Structure formats: C-alpha cells, structure tokens
Amino acid sequence: MPLFFESTLLLFYFVISLGLLFLSFISILIKNKQLDFLSFLLICIMMTCFYGLRPSGTVDTKMYLDIFKQLAGFANFPYGVGFYILMKSIKYIDNTNTGYVFYSSLFIVLFFALAVFLLCKNMYYKSLCMISLFFSWSMLDLSANTYRQGVAVPFFLLSVYFYKERKFFWFASCIIISLSMHWGATLILLLFLIAMFFSRKIKVLKLISISALALLTVSFFINFNFSELAASSPLINQLQTVFVGIDLLSKINSYLGGAVDGANFYEMTSLQRIYFTGEIYIALIVCVIFFITKKVNDPIMLSNSFMTAYSFFILVSLYGIVLISMTWFIRNFYWVVPTIPILYMYILKYIEDNKKKNHLPILSFYCIFLIAFSCDTFWRAPIITVSYL
C-alpha cells in the first residue's frame, strides 16, 4: 500500500505532485512553453521541500552529517575535492544538521534542473521530465541517501549535453566536477566515450541494444556471475603493476564482491528483483523496441540529442546488467536512470511531430503509468518510511 495513506504530509505531497503533473500535461497539449516553465519551477520547489525538509533518517545521510560536523581541512576529508567544496559551502551558509539536509537538497535539485532544462531545451516537456524524475525511487535514493553519487550524476548529464553541442571546454569541466564528487564517474566516462563511438554505427548499436535487453531478461533466472569473473581477471593483476602503492586488488574485490545482506540481486525474491530493476527494464523494453524499429534515415535517428542520450543509456545499462551479481548492483544503474525520462520526452516529441493522432493517447497513458508505477515503487520506498514515518 502507498505510504501516503499513512501520513498527511505525504498525502499533501502526492496531491501537489498530481496537480503539477496535470499542469505539465496541459502545457504540452496547448504547446505553451511559459506554462511549462512555470510548472517546471513549481516542481523544483516541491522537490526541494520534499527532500530538504525531511528528517536525517537514512544511513548515508547520517554518515555525511558526521563528516559535516567534523569538517575542517581537506587533508582529512575522505572524499573528493568537489564534494569537500560542496560541504564547505553548505557549512558556510548553515552549520546545522537541518541546514545540511536542506541546502544539499537544494543544490542537487538545482543541478538536475539545469541538466533537464538544457537537455530539453526548446521543448515544452521540461516540467513533465522533472516530475518524472521526482516520481523515480532511484532519484529519491540519489537525493536522500546516496547523495555523493547523486550530486555527481547531474554533472555527467550536463557533460552529455555539452558533448552533443561540441562545447568541449564545458564538457571537460562537468566531467572533472563529476569525478571530484564520486570516483565511479571514471568508469562511466569510459563507457560514455565508447557509447559515442557506437552512436553512429546503427546496426552495431541495435545489436548491443537487443543484447542488453535479452541479457537482463535471462539474468532474472540465471546467475552468470560476471562480477566474480571480472574480479579474478588477469587484467586486474596487470593494472596493479601500474597503480603502485595502491591496494587495487582489495579495492576491486570489495567493489565487485563485498558481502552485504540484502544488497545482492540473487539473494532477493522475485518481486524484489523486479522492484529494483523495474525502471531500467521497462525503459529498455520501450526504448530498444522504439530504436530497432526505426530506419537509418528516420528523423530521430538523425537527431544528435536522441542518439547521444540513447547510446549513453544503452552502454551504461549493459555495464550494469553484466555486473548485476555484484553487491549494490543497483548503484551502477543510478548513473543512467535520470537519462530515462529525457529519452521518454524525446520519444513523445517525436510522436507529436510525426504521428499526431497517436500523441494524445500515448501522452495520457504515460502520465497514468507514471502515477501507477510511482504508487507501487516511489510511494512505497523504504527511504520514505525511514525519513517520513
């Protein structure tokens, strides 16, 4: 049962979110960019309040608060310089627990809002994209729990935009900021560059897309244990000779095979597996079928915006699927989950421009599905229980 039935505050947010979703829907129907922008701003305010006015109940938030209280020089700081500057900025503004929770939430919403605004530029789909992010339980975890990764993700989305626009100085700047927030962005950068290599090799990209969808489907039932194979790869031993002075083997083994109860995909029940991979799986079904049914000269296949975002989504998804047997596997998908609503907006805009008769029913179905899916995932997430109940 959705948790807003147990809390007046959550019910208030649910009703407000429905109203803002309706405004987003109307702004698309009447093609009004001003109404879309107003809805976009209101959604950002709601998200900031939802994340920022919560108690500090999650495990990672408590850990960050302990670091925040003792924050001094960078020498003893356990994370990257970007995250240190962010924490130091918040501490300068408000040196309290509630101040950290609120301003950290404000910053992450602003960063995601900027990414959505640019990636959906010249479209009246910005507010629908933003409310789709709000209804994502993965986004909830990134904002209210795994914050360090969460604040690195929007900068990677911004780098995707600047790469598409061939603004390489800003691309490099956003990549550096993302790397300074979370070391995991290093591998995602490599995957992004590989994705850009394949972005114009349509036949190969279609094969990769089908393989990713098929592999995730089969992985529900069969554990290929690729993460253990990766951890024992001879390549890791060769890398250890390069990174002298760093116990690379133990770090990689901890990353790929660390044992945490409840964090392993194959220790979960069938329903839990569906819950934790539902966003990615549904997106793969929709986006892959859409992509492989399009001809090479189709307008959307010639769209730099769609092809850049789609290629990135597929390659990172495939990476997450291959390592699905590792502990905290879901955090590999977190890098690309915020790309999903952006792809949906591109697809909806394509349908509006090329198949006008289908646009209204598909847009309506999307909004209804968004509500229904969020009631079964976002509004039942354990993080909400910890933070609000």
UniProtKB/TrEMBL annotation:
Q: Which residues cross the membrane?
A: 12-30, 37-55, 67-87, 99-117, 169-195, 207-226, 274-293, 305-326, 332-348, 360-379
Q: Which UniProt keywords apply?
A: Membrane, Transmembrane, Transmembrane helix
| Native source organism of the sequence | Ewingella americana
Question: What protein name applies here?
Answer: EpsG family protein
Q: Which Pfam families match?
A: EpsG (PF14897)
Q: Name the domain of life this protein comes from.
A: Bacteria
InterPro entries reported for this sequence: EpsG-like
